[in-house]
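Dear Dr. H.,

I hope your travels went smoothly. While you were away I took the liberty of generating a structure for the chain from your last submission, since the lab meeting agenda had it listed for discussion. I wanted you to have the full record in hand beforehand rather than looking at slides cold. The sequence, exactly as received, is reproduced here:
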Amino acid sequence: MTKSTFEEFFGTDEEKSKTGVPIPMGFNAKDEEVVFWIAEVNNPKHTAAQRQYSKLLEASRRNEKRHDAVLAKVVAKGILLKWEGVLDEDKNPVEDTIENRTKYLIKYPKLFQAVLEQAMNQDNYRPEDSEDAQKDTEKN
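The corresponding predicted structure, in token form, is as follows:
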């Protein structure tokens, strides 16, 4: 089946967009893989979190530190949906909670940026093309 130009260039797998895709980030101090499940920007959970915190976002505009904290909460609730393999300084697992995700998104601006970059990378959320997937399967 032929796709429209827009579907070909900008089509999104709604399930991937909402539930997130596993993004390998590297390995922790125990040589275990660190994986983040990142949903696409503007997915329904992200939009709901933005609405939930809209008043706080507006109220915190003049206080950069507070505004960044509210943005981190929105990302922790609606984009960075889960993680595995995250360790603390003592090599203990860091529990995957919204509070912990928010805490580390605030503490590490580069983490915040990396999560948003992955969430905006449309290649992460493309629909599987059955013809291309079949060709890849045949090659393997």
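Two observations you may find useful: The chain has one domain: 14-125. Residues 14-125 form one domain.

With kind regards,
E. W.
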